Amino acid sequence: MPSQQPNRSRTAHEYARERIRSAILSGELAAGTRLRQREIAADLEVSTTPVREALRDLATEGLIYLDAHRGAVVRSLDLDEVREIYEMRMALEPLMIKRMLRTITDERLDTAAELCARMAAEQDLSVWVDLNRRFHSLLTDEGDDGKLAQTLRSLRASAAAYVSLSLDARPEQVGEANAEHHRLVELYRVRDLDGIVAITLQHLRKTLAAIEATHEAAG
């Protein structure tokens, strides 16, 4: 995992987290890989403290697990788990959408539109996956510290690795998702609850179907 020039707007913790996450989502760090803090810190040219914090964050996201004997290890992906994640999201996202429609601002929607433009131009799938997660968080739960919002943030983070794998196998899904994202912003601007929920559920079902197809092809 070679070092890149850190973006000065990011802390060392954020930089380490993004670099390790990108390496996992791109397949550079395969399932079962042991993540040694000192080696990663040396590769990224940071101290071990931000690496330790980054690994703790990635364990919360579900990308790695912390083993009492082996330390941090990249997780393998489980199809039953991803189905449960998407079933929970399809049940909970409409509740969050209804709540957010009461308070979402034009400024936030402008930011969402900017993220759409960045996703449309992005060629790096791991970066696109992170932008995608930020986009959905911005529209539905950013700034909300309630239990529902916390649960959805955790579910989206846990789904990130699966999304990356499905996109790698079915790259045309990116263009489809980008079009749906633009449509979602338009519907939020006119506060069309039914339309937003319909597209959101369609978006989730298509993503799950792509993940399942990828899993079957690999099997």
Automatic annotation (TrEMBL):
Gene3D superfamilies: GntR ligand-binding domain-like, Winged helix-like DNA-binding domain superfamily/Winged helix DNA-binding domain. Keywords: DNA-binding, Transcription, Transcription regulation. The keyword Transcription regulation applies. This is GntR family transcriptional regulator. InterPro entries: GntR_C, TF_FadR/GntR_C, Tscrpt_reg_HTH_GntR, WH-like_DNA-bd_sf, WH_DNA-bd_sf. It comes from Nonomuraea typhae. The lineage of its organism: Bacteria, Bacillati, Actinomycetota, Actinomycetes, Streptosporangiales. Residues 10-77 form the HTH gntR-type domain. CDD domains: WHTH_GntR. Pfam families: FCD, GntR.
